[in-house]
Amino acid sequence: MYYKINSNNNPASCDFLLKISILKNYNIGKDNENIISVDTLLKSTRAIPTKEMVDDLNRNTAARIIEPFERDMNALQEAFDWHYCHPHSGGKELTDEELENLDFDTFSRLMIKIDWKDYPDQTTKPKDLKDRRNA
Predict the structure, then answer these.
(1) Which pTM was predicted?
(2) Which H or E element spans position 84?
(3) Tens digit of pLDDT for each residue in 5-14?
C-alpha cells in the first residue's frame, strides 16, 4: 500500500500510514492498538501546515489543515477505514452533528479509530519474540 500512494495528490498519506503502522505494531494487544490522536498524525508530517503557520496566512484551518488531513486519510482506504472518536471514550465515534460543526480546536483534540481491512495476525508475536530471546 505504501508504494501505491500518489504523493503528489496525497502528500501526507505516506507519513500517516507509516505512523499508524508503527503505533499499531508497538501497541499490539493493548486497548489503544487501533487508536491514534489527530495531533500525533499532524506532527508526523510536514505536508500539512501547523495551525501557527495557517494563522500567519489566512486563518482558514478547515481548508488548509482539516480538509487535506481527511483527503490524505481517505487515500488509505485500501488499508483501513477510519473514524473520528472522542478522546478517552474507548472509541466512541462522533455524531453527524458533531462532524458538521467541527472546528480546529475540537479537531486537534480528537482521536482516530482505525479499522484495518487485512492486517496480519499478530497474536503470536509477543510469544515468538520471548521464545527467541530465551533461546
Answers:
(1) 0.85
(2) strand 80-85
(3) 989 999 999 9
